[in-house]
Amino acid sequence: MAEHTIKAFDDDINQLRGLVAEMGGRVETALEEAMTALIEQDEKRAARVVENDQRIDMLEAEVEKLVIQTIALRAPMADDLREVIAALKIVGVVERIGDYAKNIAKRVPKIGNHRMIEPILLLPSMAQIAGEMVGDALNAFAARNAMLAEAVIARDHVVDSFYNSIFRTLVTYMVENPKTVGECAHLLFIAKNIERIGDHATNVAEMVYYAATGNYLPERERGETEIES
To answer: Taking residues 149-174, what's their average pLDDT?
Structure first.
């Protein structure tokens, strides 16, 4: 991108991108660590995920402060204003994604010996796709890459399909093994949290597309999950 006449504005934009990137990296790590803690039944690792969420919240506050400062002092217009506003909206969504990762980690101590429950094997793959969507959406923001943003949106149905498969399998498992209802319920909540992360990554990608092009994407048909259909 071309440099602005006022170098201080370029510095502000670069700082904004850096803070958003740091938030995104921490959120991706939180999701990976939460899933590892779940599979390995590592309560200490899960506790660290919960504790580290505070830094994500602090970064969101830093972005909000910088956005207000940038708008007040630089009066950005057109493309620049869209990017600054997009950064403000995006960090709110990213913070929520961090909360979902934290919620997954909080459920780790509540799940007992779940290794024999088949859907547990699908959750890491589902989480990996959702995490990649988050990373790609934020990379699209940093590069103002509308095509990459569209590619993120196109992958949301994969996460929805994972959720529907896990939902059906867990419900069947609970019916056949009533003693596992408690553990299966926690796994259902975890699957739903991952599905929501995919939805939020899609929301970020839509914001990025608008920031990069000035156009809204056509209203798309969102995939239904079992609990919504």
So the answer is: 94
Asked if residue 218 is part of any domain, the answer here is no
Give the pTM: 0.89
Please provide the DSSP assignment of 22-89 as one string: HHHHHHHHHHHHHHHHHHHT-HHHHHHHHHHHHHHHHHHHHHHHHHHHHHHHH---HHHHHHHHHHHH
Confidence of residue 227 (pLDDT cuts 50, 70, 90): low
- Asked if residue 110 is part of any domain, the answer here is yes
The answer as to whether 224 is a domain residue is no
Separation of alpha carbons 100 and 103, rounded Å: 5
Radius of gyration of the chain (CA): 19
Which domain, by its residues, includes 39? 7-213
Helix (H, G, I), strand (E, B) or coil at 220: coil
| Distances, alpha carbon 19 to alpha carbons 6, 57, 109, 193, in Å | 21, 12, 32, 24
Whole-angstrom distance, CA of residue 195 vs CA of residue 30: 16
Question: How much is the mean pLDDT over the chain?
Answer: 88
pLDDT of residue 51: 97
> Total structural domains in the chain?
1
Point out the least confidently predicted range of 13-27, 31-45, 78-92, 107-121: 107-121
CATH number assigned to the domain comprising residue 96: 1.20.58.220
Q: Does residue 30 lie in a domain region?
A: yes
